[in-house]
Every structure is written in C-alpha cells, then in structure tokens.
Design a protein that fits this description.
This protein is about 75% helix and about 0% strand. With about 475 residues, the protein is an all-alpha fold.
Amino acid sequence: MTQTPTASSDRAITDFGIDTTTLSTAEAVRDYLARVRAGQLGSLPALLGLIALVIMFSALSDVFLSLNNVANLLAQGAGQTMIAMGIVFVLLVGEIDLSAGTASGAAGAVLAMHFVHDGNLLGGMGSTVFIVFNLVLALAVVLALLLRIWPGAALAGVAIVISVSGMTANPWLEMLLALCVGAAMGCITGFLVARIGMPSFVVTLALFLTWQGVILQFIGEGGTLGISSSPVLNKVANGNLSTLGSWALFAVGAGGFGALMLGQHFSRLRRGLVTQPTPLVLFKVGGVAALGAVATMLLTINRSPNPSIVISGVPYVVPIVLALLTLGTYVLNRTSYGRHIYAVGGNREAARRAGINVTKIRASVFIVSSSVAALGAIVYSSKVGSVDAQAGGLNTLLFAVGAAVIGGTSLFGGRGRVFDAVIGGTVLAVVANGLGLLRQPAAVVAIVTGLVLLLAAMVDALSRRRAATAGR
C-alpha cells in the first residue's frame, strides 16, 4: 500500500530521504530536485558558493591550493567555526546570541591568566575582582539550579573549585576552566532570556559589552597574555597528527560514518520505516571515504617550504572540529533534547502544549552556545599564541553568526544543522584567505564578507517564502 508522506517525515528525512517502498533512486533524485525548487535548499547554496570560490581563487592564485595554505586554512577558520556551531543551537529556537564572541574572549582571558600566574587567579585579578568573579560564578550555579539545568550548574561549580583552590598551571586544567567559565556565562544569559523573558537581542547585546569590559579588566587595555610557551596549548591549533595518527583518524572517521549510515539504513529497512534509497546511501558513504582518503594522503605529504624542516600530518584542529560536529549532530538528531529544540524553534506554543519545558530548552541553548564558544577561544588563542584585550571582539562574533546563516541555518528558527556552521565557516575562511593571498585590503575583505552574509540571509528569506507558498 502506498504511504503518504507527512510534514513531520519531510522534516525528519533530509537530502534524498524517501519512502523506499514507493520511490526508486531516480524518483528520489527527482523528488529532491522538486523540494529544492519548492524552497527547501538547506546548505546547497553554501556548497555551490564554496565550490565557486575555490575555483575562482585557485585560478587567481597559484598558492591557494598548495598543501601548506590548505592546512593553514583549516586552522585559521576553526575557532570561528566552532563558535558558529554553538550559535546554531540558539538560532534553532529562534533566538540570537550576540555575546558569544566576547564570552569566548572572556573565557580565553581566564585561561591565559590562570596559565601566566601559575594558577593564582587571586594574584592576577586582585582581591576585589577575584571575589566578584567567584560571586558571579556562584550566581550562575544558583540560576542553573533554578532552571534545573544540572550540567550548567556542575560546570559553573567546577569553575569555582578551580578558581579558589589555586591549583598550579596545567594546560588541560586551563582548558577545562575556560569551558566551565563559558558555561557559567551561558547560565546567566539563558536565565535572563528564558526565565525573566527579556529579548535575546537586548540581553546578549548588553552582555557583549559587559564581557568586553571583563576582558579589559582581566588583561588591561593594550595588554597581552602569552600562552605559546605551553607545548600543549600551542599545539591545539598549530600541531599535526603523525602519519600513522592521520590514517588512524581517517579509519575511525570514515569507518564510523559508514557503519552508522549503513547500520541505521538497514535497520530502518528491516522495520519497514522510511529511509533513503540504498544506492544513494552507498554513494554517500563511498564519497566521504574517497574524499577523506585523498585529503589524508595529501596532508601527510611534507608541506614545509623549508627543505630542512618536515611539516606533515592532519592538523589537530580537524579531529577537534569533527568530534564537535559528531557530538552536536548526534544531540540534535538522535536525542529527545535535540527534537525538543527543533519543536520549540518550529512552534513554541505547540511545543509547550506538547509538554516540553520550553523555558528550560530556551535557556539551555545559551549554555551550549557559550560553552562551545569557550572551546573556540582555546583554538583561536592557540593559533595566535596569546590572548589580548580584543579577544572575541571585532569580527569574531559577526563571522560566527554569519557562518551559521551562510551554511543554511535559518534566522527564523526550527531549521538548521551543526554541519551548516562548518560549511559556512569554510566559506568565510576561504574568502578571507583567498583575498589575503590576492593582497586585497581589509576594506575589500569586509565588503565581500558582508555581501556574502547578506546574500545568505536573502536566500533564507526567499526560500522560506517559496516554501510557504508551495505549502498552500
């Protein structure tokens, strides 16, 4: 018996998802093209734009596709891409987080201060600032408990323990501290937006300025705290896996992706559930494996311009971003929490009537955003080897939000994926890198980046209008 697709199944199945009992592979492709024409574009415009940019810059610059530049490109865009991955969670519920950039900078400043002062935050901050800092962390714990967000309360509590204990500097401890401080800032933001009911634009704009002031207080205007003397912190964004480690990453990544895709596909087939056509699933798995193998092979070649120095291997930032992408995708697609996020973003009132704790969901996404922003701070601070008074400011936030939107996440809520941030972040990194190689001034880079973001927002608005018209 032919099954009639429902709206929920259309949202749940992306790309070429169809009812395999009624559609062949060719029919699935035609169905996908029909949905694209109806306005369900996803990350397709960003992918096409990325391909066009790569072709253009490779034609204009002989250096753009060199192994050394490609490896640098991966590290240069990783920090803002990670921040964008956290912002996706906020955008999915129809909110905005303008404080993510400076929140990441504040977390990075605390990390650097703990490292430089050998764990003595009291000596680094001064008694008054140190007391206020820990009181704010305690407030974050209380607010998270009121919201019943236990992970947020636990992470903020860990930040207090590390702060007051005066444990000596350790790069892993510093990174944990940054994550916990980021979570604490998210608890405050989430409470003000979800429980108090303040507009997220106003709250996060105010906190953008607040956290910027905190950075200045910690570091001082024009000051800098160096972290490059720590081999671990320096290698986060500047180190590379060994050749064996690079191929092990490929085996785990490609093998895990293939096992997950094929396992889920054949499991759904056995149960008679809606799934993608088998040839298309095999094509996806094979394509990812082929691209991964080629990329790994190229990155394991010596790319140093100096013959006496060997630089090879997949950059450390690649497995970091992949791990975050895998975790975020799993949370959104395979957990009730992720389904609740999409439900709240799609229709807040309907989600409330369905029994979803809308307040808790809306608050929690800000904790996710700030926590992931802190991880982004670790990466971009490692890249430059220091944290200064402008950390997380300037264009960091704009590029992070832009990356999520350019990749296909809707500003209107209810539609988007963590993968969108990766695609959008890659687009922005390619734009900045390519124009830099062409020696274009900062003005041109800013103009082009702004136009790319404007185009992405316009595509989002037009696709929603087209989808709404097609659904009538």
